[in-house]
Amino acid sequence: MMKNFAGAAALFGLPLHKISAEPNQLPPESLFGTNPDSYWDRLRSDQFLMPNVRAFLNTGSLGVTPRPVFNAVVNYLEKAAELNVEALQVEQYPRWGYEALDEERLAIAEFIGCHKDELAITHNATEAMSIIAGGMPLPRGTEVLLTDQEHPSGTGPWKLREIKGELKTRTVNLPLPPKSPEQLVDIIISAIGPKTRVLSFSGIMSPTGLLMPIREICDAARERGVITVVDGAHMTGQVPVKIDDMHCDYFAGSPHKWLFSPAGSGVLYISESRLDEHYPVIATAGWDDKAMKAGRFMRFGTNNRAIIEGFMAGLEFAKSIGPDRIYQRIHELALETFNRARELPYVTMLTPEDDRMFGSLVTFRINLPEQQLALLWQRCTERRIWTTGDQQLRVSTHIHTRYSDLDLFFETLREVAG
Ligand SMILES: Cc1ncc(COP(=O)(O)O)c(C=O)c1O
Question: What pLDDT, on the 0 to 100 scale, is given for residue 390?
Fold first, then answer.
């Protein structure tokens, strides 16, 4: 009973001080050794607030908040409302938006493999991409190369500058699905033209889950004098990301998808060599203080500091389970999804077969008439299966995903297909 009280309290406006700040313990290690599926089942019921009946297969849009993250946000809000500066360990009312947050940035930077001074905390990847594209000094006539699998947040910020006459964009089409990482490097790099100054692409493609050979692309682009921007909205938390290993100049991330952060968490990376020349797109005190390094790109004005606390709790949660263990599990579930989908005669796989080229997002086209597709969505809603797409359907698998969730989804699909 007590376990569910916190969620109920928040939903129904009951006194929040009843919510424990202590995280629930993870299941015992011995259980992982003897019965990994039970370990993950137990972890789901202890660490997530969502009810047992939900099959949540849409982390790619927004992750579901785990209990320790929820608790951290709520506790912080409560302490802030009490002006309890002792508990918050601050001297004044905390306001993300004017603060350096060095400790927090250090923790994030260590996790995602970059230097704290090259990292700013944003609200999401859209904002990070907007700061990257909006603030990059570029000579007029510059060409920015994009791919045809970008999310609107990866193209919009460039197109905005294009309509102002500041640059031109060009799009390179990727094969669907591609054959190999080498083929992708070849297609992208050979598309670089004499005016191409920037290459902006997703590390994991939103529509297909395709994991790009980022380092190879960035190295080859750099040899040609091209600046690289990686839209890594799906990377942080889905694959073991180390930004320094990617050799990109800029990176945008959305840890509220795969890294357990509360909605409204983002990261922006700008390599040291580009920091000084980059312009902020939002300006308040400190906007021109280059000594602040990447910190001057997170001067937004007053913000909800509780989100940062949740972000930190999400990082701790991931670390306590272990990023490698998480990846192994969620990729194993994605492989299972891939294999089950591939067997169906009315399905065309859009995620590549080579599993070096996807993490935990699997996309396929369902070649069924519209009426049957509508019925599929209706049945999914009735059975509380959450996924995304239409004819092109994308399944996300995370640590709360159970094999029974996949059973339910594929049974529903088979039933509708008849
Ligand atoms: C590749 C990519 N970039 C950017 C975004 C935007 O992310 P956010 O809504 O967190 O800003 C998404 C969201 O799905 C995405 O898939």
Answer: 85
- Whether residue 241 has its Cβ less than 6 Å from ligand 1: no
Binding site membership of 206 for ligand 1 (Cβ less than 6 Å): yes
The count of domains in the chain is: 2
Quick check: CB of 59 below 6 Å from ligand 1? no
The ligand 1 atom at the shortest distance from the C-alpha of residue 266 is 10
- Which residues pair with residue 396 across a beta bridge? 361
Query: What's this model's pTM, rounded to 2 decimal places?
Result: 0.93
Residue 380 in contact with residue 412, Cβ under 8 Å?
yes
Q: What is the pLDDT of residue 88?
A: 81
Closest listed residue to residue 264, CA positions, set 116, 111, 73, 77: 73
Ligand 1 close to Cβ of residue 395 (< 6 A): no
Q: Are residues 137 and 226 in the same domain?
A: yes
Q: Which residues of the chain have pLDDT under 50?
A: 1-20
Nearest of 42, 332, 334 to residue 210 by alpha carbon? 334
- Of 312, 340, 363, the one marking the end of a domain is 312
> Which amino acid residue places its CA nearest to atom 7 of ligand 1?
125
Residue 23: predicted pLDDT:
59
| CA dist., res. 399 & res. 56, Å (int) | 11
Residue to probe by mutation, ligand 1, list 122, 127, 153, most atoms within 8 Å of CB: 153
Residues 335 and 292 in one domain: no
Domain check: are 366 and 410 in the same one?
A: yes
Q: Are residues 227 and 332 in the same domain?
A: no
